[in-house]
Design brief:
With 305 residues, the chain is mostly helical. The chain contains 14 helices and no strands. It has one domain: Na+/H+ antiporter like fold (Up-down Bundle). The radius of gyration is 18 Å and the shape is globular.
């Protein structure tokens, strides 16, 4: 089991290295990365989500959907409480980054490709709900954190972001068992396939812009990454196990919660005047470390499921 998970993570890492090479060779630049990010966020990820919902309606799947929704909300609330209790920094610009990074995992870029590889559409089906809840919290609590409580929550972005729209479309397709013609389904599948290579290449580009050694000297940054990559995922896994969550639900949820710090941390830092250098370093280094931590945690989830 550990080998299977490790192989999938290594495959993702190889794709990340392609991004590093392209950046070093000056083939990939900031403008290209921003363009690819828009393609991923607005087309590829929504297509992955919609594709996972194209299935016949049944009561068991509906139950799975509702349980995954509860788990996703509980996980984010748990992460928020722990981060507030354990993260403090005199540099408020950096503290914002640490608080945001501990709560928000890279459940789109890193999680969905791994879900697809290990669990197929069933895993993506469960993870899509986590992504939707992630978006709601990110555009509400995330803005409150990064804006220092001075920013107004944009209800439009909470409700009408691409991830939420895709989930709503997917749920409608699932609940109505709406038949999707091949001429529509195949393009959705092609665009969904982009959700694995493009995000990894983007991460690789930003790795070349980070100061890895500086991050390893930052005690509070190391603590935040330890929370995000090890302590919180293991705690969440233990709580789910005690609540008798098993099987694909447990494994899929474990993949979502053990993902590295969200790439959105850097985007929000730049937008709201937080420490962008610290955010870029934490996102990059946590992604590297997750190559070790994710296989261990996901394998544990497979063993106990």
């Amino acid at each position: 089991m550990f080998i299977n998970v490790t192989v999938q993570v290594v495959i993702l890492f190889i794709l990340i290295l392609v991004g590093v090479v392209l950046a070093r060779a000056k083939i990939l630049n900031e403008a290209a990365c921003k363009g690819m990010t828009d393609v991923v966020l607005n087309i590829a990820t929504p297509c992955v989500i919609i594709k996972s919902f194209i299935r016949e309606f049944d009561k068991d799947s509906l139950k799975t959907l509702l349980i995954s929704f509860v788990i996703a909300i509980a996980a984010h609330l748990f992460f928020i409480i722990v981060s507030r209790l354990t993260i403090k920094d005199n540099d408020k610009a950096k503290e914002k980054v640490l608080l945001f990074g501990v709560v928000f995992a890279n459940c789109g870029y890193m999680s969905l490709p791994l879900q697809q590889a290990l669990l197929g559409d069933d895993g993506v089906f469960i993870a899509s709900v986590y992504v939707a809840v992630f978006n709601v919290f990110m555009w509400s609590y995330g803005i409150a954190v990064m804006g220092g409580g001075n920013e107004k929550i944009n209800v439009k972005k909470v409700v009408l972001n691409p991830g939420m729209i895709a989930v709503v479309i997917g749920v409608i397709i699932f609940l109505t068992s709406l038949p999707i013609p091949q001429v529509v389904a195949e393009p959705i599948g092609y665009f969904a396939a982009l959700n694995t290579p493009l995000p990894m290449i983007i991460i690789g580009y930003y790795l070349t812009k980070s100061d890895i050694f500086k991050t390893f000297k930052d005690i509070k940054g190391i603590w935040a990454m330890t929370l995000r990559l090890v302590i919180l995922p293991l705690a969440a896994l233990g709580i789910m196990y005690l609540c008798r969550v098993r099987g694909t639900m447990l494994i899929s949820s474990a993949i979502s919660v053990c993902s590295p710090i969200a790439a959105a941390t850097t985007m929000f830092s730049a937008k709201y005047g937080a420490d962008t250098e610290a955010s870029a370093n934490l996102v990059s280094v946590s992604t590297l470390i997750s190559i070790i931590t994710m296989p261990l945690i996901v394998t544990l989830a497979q063993i106990i499921s």
